[in-house]
Predict the 3D structure of the following.
Amino acid sequence: MRIIKGANLVLMFLLELGVIAGAAAWGFTLDGSTVLRVVAGVIAPLLFIAMWALFGAAGDARFRLRGPWRIALELIWFGGGAVAWGAAAGAVIGALFFALWAINALLRYLGDGTLQVEVPKARAAQR
């Protein structure tokens, strides 16, 4: 079970990076001027990063969300990444991205009873 949990945490990290990459891909593939594409390709990932740092980061989120608020955050964040991938690379890619997140979230919920990822505290004996 530890191997599955660890692999699922790695998948979550890769999905987090995927949201940022999807936001950038969406921005850089917009129809419009080069300036618009560059600005959108830089600003969109920064907005997603700020949102995750404030509300979703496992160890040091400024405002930790739990329960239905955590579910809403992940739906907005990973759903936004899926929409961005869908707009940039096609609906199948976006749907696949969202499906991977849904499987990841289900496994986290079944394993821990929550979507919240807890960072283990260092043991005093290890110092």
Q: What stands out?
A: The chain has one domain: 2-116. Residues 2-116 form one domain. Helices lie at 2-28, 34-55, 68-89, 91-112. The mean pLDDT is 92.
